[in-house]
Write a structure and sequence with these properties.
The protein has helices spanning 2-12, 28-35, 56-71, 75-107, 133-157, 163-185, 194-199, 202-211, 216-220; strands spanning 18-19, 22-25, 124-127, 260-261. With 266 residues, it is mostly helical. The protein is globular and about 70 Å long.
Length: 266
């Protein structure tokens, strides 16, 4: 009888949830931001070399590391997630405003004229997998920039905006994306937990000496990213110690899997 009940219980259990995601990039500007750029040293006859730019796969990986460290009770990772979410929200809103402005420009044409939707004849199709929701938010930002680039080129091609405005929109949008890259790339990763800092373990003391004392709201869990994993325990703000008279320094990010689990416990 017990075996029959267990069999019925197993039969009612659903399998793991799966989903896959892919994106299409249509502009060379967005594709270059996806691919990144290696550092180019100064050569004879040139004024300066070119600094490296992180690739989107590197950014996605770094966002996943931050997420994992946040799940491991690292307050510095929590601070980065808050900073990253705020920056992504602001950058996405600014790019959307620019896209909307171009849509108004493109629609302000005589009724006898019709424009087709712009698209590449050979877009780059990429499968995307991230271990962090903020990793996907980085991808959404890049896709938004791709939309901005396409509409800017279309509006300029048909004489609706000047070349200067087109280039200005491309540069402004690219700067917003690269700023997100910079947050993750310059993050000084440390292996430490809230307990290490509270108990002043060697790892905790070393982290505080390098990065300063975490903000009390971050340390207590009062301020966290809306995409942060659950906090292991909530620490009252009055328990956060002044470990050292060190000025707090805010810390400043996997590639492709065709199908991923949507179940956080899978």
């Amino acid at each position: 009888m017990a075996e029959e009940k267990n069999a019925q219980s197993s039969a009612r259990r659903a399998g793991a949830l799966k989903s896959s995601l892919s994106i299409e990039l249509h502009s060379d500007y967005a594709i270059r931001l996806w691919a990144g750029r290696q550092e180019e040293k100064r050569t004879k006859g040139e004024r300066a070399g070119r600094s490296a730019i992180a690739s989107m796969p590197q950014v996605i990986y770094a966002a996943g590391r931050v997420y994992q460290d946040s799940a491991a009770d690292n307050p510095y990772a929590d601070a980065v997630m808050v900073q990253l979410e705020q920056a992504l929200t602001q950058a996405s809103a600014q790019i959307q405003v620019k896209v909307s402005e171009l849509e108004i420009v493109l629609s302000a044409i005589p009724s006898q004229i019709s424009l087709t939707t712009i698209a590449s004849v050979n877009p780059l199709n990429i499968g995307v997998f991230s271990r962090s929701p903020l990793g996907y938010r980085c991808v959404w930002l890049l896709v938004g920039y791709d939309q901005l680039a396409m509409k800017a080129f279309q509006a300029h091609h048909y004489g609706l905006i000047s070349r200067q405005r087109r280039d200005g929109l491309l540069n402004q949008g690219g700067h917003l994306v690269r700023r997100i890259y910079g947050i993750l790339r310059s993050w000084p990763r440390v292996d430490v937990t809230r307990a290490d800092i509270l108990n002043q373990t060697p790892r905790g003391v070393d982290a505080v000496s390098r990065l300063g004392i975490p903000d009390e709201a971050i340390m207590s869990g009062a301020v966290r990213s809306s995409f942060s994993p659950p906090l292991r325990r909530v620490i009252p703000a009055d328990v956060v110690p002044a470990v050292a008279e060190t000025e707090a320094k805010p810390p400043v990010a996997q590639g492709n899997d065709p199908a991923e689990s949507l179940d956080p416990d899978a």
